[in-house]
Amino acid sequence: MFDGCLGAPYGGSPKEASVFVNPIIPGGFPDPSICRVGETWYICNSSFEYFPGLPIHESKDLVNWSWVGHGLHRKEQVSGAVNLVDVKSDDGIQAPSIRYHDGTFYIITTCVYRPPDSDEGKCTNFIVTASDPRGPWSDPHVIEDAPGIDPDIFFDDDGKVWYVGTAAPAKPNFPGEGEIYCHELDLKNWKFTGERHYLWRGAVHGGVFVEGPHMYKHEGSYYLMAAEGGTGVNHSVVIAISEKVTGPFYPNDRNPILTSRHLSYDNWVHSTGHGDLFHLPDGRSYMVCLGIRAEEGEPGMKRSNMGRETYLLPVTWEREPMEWHSLGPSGKRLWPVCSPETGKVERTLPLPLGLLVFAGSEDSFEKAALDPEWLFRRVPKDGMYNLNGPGLRLKASPEVLAERTSCSFMGVRQRQTEFEFSAKMSFEGSTGVAAGVAIVQKDDNYLTFMVESGKLLVALKEKEKDERNIATIDLPSYSGSIVFKIRSADHKYNCAYSLDDGSTYTSCAEMAASHLLSLGYTGSCLGPYCTSRGQVTESFATFAWVRLSSEMQ
User: Fold this and answer.
1) Please, is 501 exposed, middle or buried when counting C-beta atoms within 10 Å of its C-beta (0-12, 13-18, 19+)?
2) Which range is the signal sequence, renumbered to this chain (predicted)?
């Protein structure tokens, strides 16, 4: 299986390291939410159209994160009101909040679904629960009459439970204005009770898209934190305070408390926002947030292949120096200060706690169930794969990579810009059936590296362009076994293959990595792919192992 943790020390062995490298969870893991149980922290992220959904990681040091599982891991959970069967790209599961209370884990989130041939989306807000984060997780408890997106769940000291959501106000002051509301939640019946309270429309005048709220209680005050400014380069974190959970809430005069909008578009990370605050047992505070590495593309428009990732930064608390604010109750309010020395997300920071050992990634498919690292574009069809062994058997499906389609592709997230991905495949083949590996950014943006009819084909699909072959190589000595290798270095993808079990490799194609930049909500995935291109067949490919090693930039 894919062993080890995802973070890595910076400079030297774990015993020598004194700082860590951001992002702490590399790859397409946006919208992080975090909670702690005992000495273990858990993070849950958005997953959009991918299945399984709601990925969960755990850590004891906040730097090295290992897989736990998924909150949505059964087809029955996502084949009804929560729909990942034919969901549109960049819709699906968005902005979860994970919390723990009285022996139960709660994940509250939104599923966005637009019917085919319609731009009108429906937002289904729901909760799944578990006593163990490894599962099983419950079927979705849909919260009726809960408009909008990105809900949070807040457990108050008095025993009341609050749903905190975001929706368009009845009378917006400008296009894109959002409004945060709260409503008491009856967890026995999964229904609202009492009246709805409208809390806040965001901090910055003229700001748009307030979303992703989190409610906290700290030193007797209620804090309402949210994302604002959209998910691009103007993304930010803003905060307000109140003496009551139902408001009124008063904004921090120094909002936003975190952003990159004041930095160069080419800063190493941009679009930072959508944070979640938490405390260490010793009283120190930190925040997890998302960001996009600026690594490829034109100046001012740089992005990465990995998409939006999870970052960690320190937080301190400071009181206002004087009672100079014009609104709200008197007194010197206490506010969080993100990265107090620099005010931004840093690439390297001092370790918050001790560091655990980092390990590499390999899967030889020896267990009865897939490692949680694997994911699919939408719900996979029955019989698509099996682990009866040896190795992974992937059936050729008539479907190819396409919008709203589930095909025989399964992948792991690209973790770093520079990496080496390899896979050993056995494939007898038949006319019109192709099997190999792929790097998939979206349904209309991918690289395939496959064997078909005795030839090796490398093809690139770019958004709004036809798929084109980069290389076609005859394989006269192919005897049914091949090792694929894709290496990313110096801003290029290099494809190579071996017919002698990895002893020697032949390079066959190279392309700029910028052809597969993330322009949506998710990042690229790498993995096996097998298609019969429209025909029904019993053909399959067998993968003995898959390996992924990343270079820390």
Assistant:
1) exposed
2) none
SS3 299: coil
Distance CA 522, CA 443 (A): 12
- Contact indicator for 165, 179 with CB cutoff of 8 Å: no
Would you state the torsion angle of the CA atoms of residues 536, 538, 539, 544, taken in this order, to the nearest 10 degrees?
A: 130
- Provide the b/e sequence for 471-497 (b: ≥16 CB within 10 Å): beeeeeebeeebbbbbbbeeeebbbbb
pLDDT of the residue at 419: 93
- Those residues whose C-beta lies under 8 Å from the C-beta of residue 512, and which sit 6 or more positions away, are 491, 492, 493
Please give the span between the terminal C-alpha atoms of the chain, in angstroms, as a whole number: 25
pTM of the entire predicted model? 0.91
Cα distance between residue 30 and residue 147, in whole Å: 22
> Pairing mode, if any, of strands 525-531 and 434-442?
antiparallel
Cβ(307)–Cβ(298) below 8 Å: no
Nearest-angstrom CA–CA distance, 542 and 537: 15
Q: Is 245 exposed, middle or buried (0-12, 13-18, 19+ CB in 10 A)?
A: buried
Helical H runs in 454-506? none
> Cα Rg for the chain, rounded, in angstroms?
24
CA 109 to chain centre: 13
CA dihedral 206, 210, 216, 220 (to 10 degrees): 20
Q: What is the DSSP string of 240-277?
A: EEESSTT---EE-TT--SEESTTS-TTSSEEEEEEEEE
Q: Which of 78, 75, 76, 104 is nearest to 93 (CA)?
A: 78
Whether residue 511 contacts residue 460, with contact meaning beta carbons closer than 8 Å, is answered with yes
The secondary structure of the chain in percent helix, strand, coil, rounded to multiples of 5, reads 0, 50, 50
Please answer whether residues 164 and 155 qualify as being in contact, where contact means their C-beta atoms are separated by less than 8 angstroms.
no
Closest CA to 518 of 226, 313, 304, 240: 304
> Do the Cβ atoms of 530 and 395 come closer than 8 Å?
yes
pLDDT, residue 263, reads 95
What pLDDT does residue 323 have? Answer: 62
- Residue 61 identity (one-letter amino acid): D
Counting every residue, how long is the chain?
553
- DSSP conformational letter for 170: S
**Model pLDDT for residues 169-203, shown as the tens digit of each residue:** 989 988 889 999 999 999 999 999 999 999 999 99
| Interstrand relation of 161-167 and 149-155 (parallel, antiparallel or unpaired) | antiparallel
Q: How confident is the model at residue 10 (pLDDT cuts 50, 70, 90)?
A: very low
What angle is formed at CA 56 by the lines to CA 104 and CA 161, rounded to 5 degrees?
35
Distance from C-alpha of 325 to C-alpha of 330, rounded to nearest angstrom: 8
